[in-house]
Amino acid sequence: MMLVMTLSSVVLYNFFFYSLTQQLDSQLLTLADAAAHNLSAIQADRTAIHRKIQIIDDDGDLDIPWQDLRLYHQSVEWFDADKKLLAKAGEQFPQVPFVSSFHSWQQNGIRTLTIPVYASETNQQLLGYVRVSTSMVGIQKELNRLLMSLGITGVLEIALIAGTGWWLTSKALQPIERSFLQLQQFTADASHELRSPLTAMKTTVEVMQSHPERIHSDDIKKIALIESAIQQMTHLVEDLLLLARSDVASVSLSKTAIPIPVDEILFDLIDRLQPQAESQGITLEADLRDEVWVKGDAHQLQRLFGNLLENALQYTPHGGFIRVKMFKTDSFMVTEVTDTGIGIAPEHLPLVFNRFWRAEKARSRRQGGSGLGLAIAQAITYAHGGEISVTSKLGVGSCFRVKLPVFHNI
Ligand code: ADP
Fold first, then answer.
1. 186 half-sphere exposure, CB direction, 13 A CA radius
2. Which atom of ligand 1 is nearest to the CA of 357?
3. CATH number at residue 347
4. Is 112 helix (H, G, I), strand (E, B) or coil?
C-alpha cells in the first residue's frame, strides 16, 4: 500500500508541477508578446521604459504597467537583432547566456522565455528579441503545500490502513484461534479424563497379577499383554497432556520454576541407563560440568534429557557409542547427546520435532515409541527459554544439542 501511495503521490506531484509550469509558460508568452510591441519604441528611445504609463509605440495598446513587474517577481529584457541588451524592466533577471531562438529555460528558481521579434507578420525582418523571466517561488510554494498535504494524508491513510488491516486480520483469525484453543482444550481434557480409567485398569491388572493362582494358565500371557498396552497408553496420555499444557502456557512454569542442578540430573540419568547401554553393547560416556544450574522444573528436565538419551540408545546399533557432553558459557549451558546410530536423512531433519513423526525405517525398528519424544523435548526446552537443534548423517550418527539459560544467583 505504501508503494502504491508513494507512486501515486509522485505521479500527482509531477502532474501538478507540469501543469503549473505550463500555466507559467503561457503567462510568460503573453508577457513576452505584449513586451514585443514595445521593442521598436525602445530602440528609438531607450528612456521610454522609465516613463510611467505612457504610450511608447504607435498602436496605442501599451497596457503593461512595467512598474508592476516587481509585484509579480517578473522581468523583461529587450535585445536588438545583434543580441545587445537595449533595456530591461522588473527584477529576477536570469544569470544564463542569451539564446537567440524561441526558448524556455529554468534555472535557480527563475523561469525564462525568449522570443524573436519581427517587423510584422508579413515582414519577417528580425527586429530583436524579448526575454521575459519570472520567479518560481509561487509555484514552489504551491508544490510545497501539495507535498505537505500529500505527506499528511499519506500518514493518515497508512495509519488507517494499518488499523483496518490489523482489525480485519484479528477478526478473520478469531475463529481459527478459537478452534485451535478448543482443540488444545479438548486434548488436555481428553488426556486428563483418560488417566482415571487407565489407572483403574492398571490397578485391576496389578490385583489380578498379585494372585497368579486364580488366573487360568492360558490367560497369563494375555494379561501381561494388557498390562503392557495399559503402560503404553498411560505413557501416551501423559505425553499428550504435557504437550497440551505446554501449548496453553509456558507461563505456569515461571511460577513453579526453581533452580535445578542439571549436571546432577544428567549424572542420575546416565547411571540409570548405563546397564541398558551395556546390555545393548553400547558405550555410554559422559563429559559433564559441575554446578550447572538452570531455573525450571526438575521432572520436565529429566524428561527432556531422558528422551534424548533413550532415543540415542534406541537408534544406535550394537557396538555403538553415545557421548553426553556439557559445556557452559556465562549465560548458557549446552548439552550435546551424540550417537553413532542409524542417523536421520537430511530431508527428515526438519520433521523430527513434529508430533507423531517417525522415520519409516525406525518405525520397524522400534516398538512402543509414539513419535512424541522429541516434540516433548522441544516443548520443554522452549518452556525453559532454551533452544534445541539436531545435526545428523544417515548411517553415521546424530547429535542433539540443547541450549538452556543458566541460573547464577546460587
Ligand atoms: P519416538 O522415538 O517415540 O519414535 P521421537 O519423537 O523421540 O519419537 O523421535 C521421532 C523420530 O526421530 C524417531 O522415530 C526416529 O525416526 C528419529 N530419531 C530420534 N532420535 C534419533 C536418533 N538419535 N537417531 C536416529 N533417529 C532418531
1. 6
2. 10
3. 3.30.565.10
4. strand
Does residue 341 have its Cβ closer than 6 Å to ligand 1? yes
Pairing outcome for strands 321-328 and 332-339:
antiparallel
Q: Of ligand 1's atoms, which has the minimum distance to the CA of residue 343?
A: 25
Q: Using a 6 Å cutoff on CB, does residue 297 contact ligand 1?
A: no
In the predicted model, what is the mean pLDDT of residues 49-63? Answer: 48
391 lines ligand 1 (CB under 6 A): no
How much is the pLDDT for 72? 67
pTM over 0.85: no
Tell me which of 87-96, 306-315, 338-347, 361-370 is least confident. 361-370
Contacts of 405 (CB under 8 A, 6+ apart): 294, 295, 331, 332, 384, 385, 386
Task: Answer whether 371 contacts ligand 1 (Cβ < 6 A).
Answer: yes
Q: Is the same domain home to 180 and 271?
A: no
Are 335 and 295 members of one domain? Answer: yes
Give the total number of structural domains in the chain: 3
User: Which of 235, 321, 344, when mutated, tests ligand 1's pocket best, judged by the most ligand atoms within 8 Å of its CB?
Assistant: 344
Q: What does the pLDDT read at residue 56? A: 47
Q: Which residue has the higher pLDDT, 38 or 265?
A: 265
Residue 250 scores a pLDDT above 60 = no
Q: Dihedral sign for Cα 365, 371, 374, 377, please.
A: negative
Concatenated DSSP letters of 223-242: HHHHHHHHHHHHHHHHHHHH
Which of the residue ranges 151-155, 205-209, 333-337, 405-409 would you say has the lowest mean pLDDT?
405-409
Query: What share of the chain in percent tops pLDDT 90?
Result: 48
One domain, residues 22 and 76: yes
Regarding whether 282 and 223 lie in a shared domain, the answer is no
Evaluate: CB of 316 within 6 angstroms of ligand 1: no
Which domain CATH number covers 220? 1.10.287.130
Q: pLDDT band at 68, cuts 50/70/90?
A: low
Q: How far is the CA of 182 from the centre of ligand 1 (A)?
A: 29
Residue pair 57/28 in contact by the 8 Å Cβ criterion: no
In a domain, 143, yes or no: no
The verdict on the CB of residue 358 being under 6 Å from ligand 1 is: yes
- Give the cell for residue 232: 503404553
The domain of 309 spans 258-405
Centroid of ligand 1 to alpha carbon of 265 (angstroms): 22
390 in contact with ligand 1, CB cutoff 6 A: no
- What dihedral do alpha carbons 93, 98, 101, 104 form, nearest 10°? -40
The reported pLDDT for the residue numbered 376 is 92
What is the CA(343)–ligand 1 centre distance, in A? 9
User: Is the CB of 340 inside a 6 Å radius of any atom of ligand 1?
Assistant: no
